[in-house]
Amino acid sequence: EVRLSESGGGLVQPGGSLRLSCEASGFTFRSHAMTWVRQAPGKGLQWVSSVSGSGRTTYYAESVKGRFTISRDNSNNSLYLQMNSLRGDDTALYYCAIHGVTTTPDAFETWGQGTMIIVSS
Amino acid sequence: SAVLSQPPSVSVAPGQTARITCGGNIIGTTSAHWYQQRPGQAPVLVVYDDDGRPSGIPERFSGSKSGNTATLTISRVEAGDEADYYCQVWDGLSDHPYVFGSGTKVTVL
Q1: Which of A74, A59, A102 is nearest to B52 (CA)?
Q2: B48 touches chain A (CB under 8 A)
Q3: Over the stretch B14-32, which tens digit does the pLDDT of each residue have?
Q4: Which terminal Cβ of chain B has fewer Cβ within 10 Å, N or C?
Q5: What gap in Å lies between CA A105 and CA A101, rounded to an integer?
Q6: Do B31 and A60 count as a contact with CB atoms less than 8 A apart?
Q7: pLDDT value, residue A101
Q8: Tally of CA atoms within 13 A in the half-sphere of A7 that contains its CB
Q9: Contact B49 A59 (CB under 8 A)
Q10: Does A95 lie at the interface with B, CB-CB under 8 angstroms?
Q11: What is the DSSP string of B72-95?
């Protein structure tokens, strides 16, 4: 069974930094792209960043480019999101998701339960 | 980046059929995927590649596409189908390639 578990969320001041982690199990981690999606309170889903299976290719939403860095450690089945220069509009529940294992590479097949980031002074 | 339009809300009586649309120019050139998000829960993929159904998703959930509009159809709606539904596409020509629709709240009357 595919399992994803996020951690690292919390309360941080504007301008601060946080590093999110996502531990994966139940599939061949290095074979699949991974993604971070966030959801601000009461709002819809917003794609944040994606990384290829090898880690060599990354994509970022315009709103986080230059501030967030996605990475992965395939030896530890882990995905990361380093978040710097945090702003109030980064406040959200952050989900990690795996691209299709049994479906299609462009869809987010399995999601974690999310970790909450609150940016506030 | 691509823009996907969804109706904010759809209301349906139990046992009836709900149809949720997702419109955008890019729909005609790429596959659409659909997610269900029940209150307080993580999203779940319910349709992929326009009309594929992941393992474990009831046959009541189906997808289709015509022109620049993708449609998620929920047949024989149940109370447990009350949720937010999001479409999503991959825009291979964009530096920001993954796009979600704004979401549709399905209310079961």
Answers
A1: A102
A2: yes
A3: 999 999 999 999 999 999 9
A4: C
A5: 7
A6: no
A7: 85
A8: 4
A9: no
A10: yes
A11: EEE-S--GGG-EEEEEEEE-TTSS
